[in-house]
Amino acid sequence: MHEMAMTEKLIDVVENFADSEGCQRIRVVRIEIGKLSGVEPAMMHFCFDAVARGTVAENAVLEISEVEGNAWCFDCRRQVPLAARFEPCPRCGGVNLQPMDGTRMRVKEMEVE
Ligand SMILES: [Zn+2]
């Protein structure tokens, strides 16, 4: 499962951060997820609760903001907005697309106790 692997990476980042800051408990984790990353926010919440159990992030609130996707269309030869992965180009309907923005997950900030 894609989200589970992402969540495990996220918890690694959170634990390293908690270690370096010397804090015992993380209250809020804010992340950005690109709409082309293939990650379902609902699934991410579900995995986060499971993976965070027993870590500094147990019971932490996961706040997800979604980032719009952009792709390069090889047919239009320009950058086009893209709502989701594997969608056709909104201009020409072509499928020769290279995702550019909105493909990654990024940690924005964390609130600690
Ligand atoms: Zn196009």
- Ligand inventory: zinc ion
Give the CATH architecture of the domain at 2-68 and 102-112: 2-Layer Sandwich
Q: What gap, in angstroms, lies between the N and C termini?
A: 31 Å
Number of helices: 2
- Percent of residues in beta strands? 25-35%
Q: What value does the average pLDDT take? A: 94
General shape: elongated
Helix content percent band: 25-40%
Task: Trace the largest sheet across and list its strands.
Answer: 2-1-6
CATH topology of the domain at 2-68 and 102-112: hypothetical protein PF0899 fold
Number of strands: 6
Question: Brief overview, please?
Answer:
The chain has 113 residues and is of the alpha+beta class. The protein contains two helices and six strands.
Describe this structure as you would to a colleague:
With 113 residues, the chain is of the alpha+beta class. The chain is built from 2 helices and 6 strands. It has a 3-stranded mixed β-sheet with strand order 2-1-6, with helices on one face. Strands 4-3-5 form a 3-stranded antiparallel β-sheet, with no helix packed on it. α1 (2-21) packs across α2 (41-52). The protein has a domain at 2-68 and 102-112: hypothetical protein PF0899 fold. The chain has helices spanning 2-21, 41-52; strands spanning 26-34, 61-67, 69-73, 78-82, 97-101, 105-112. 28% of the residues lie in helices and 35% in strands. The structure holds zinc ion (ZN).
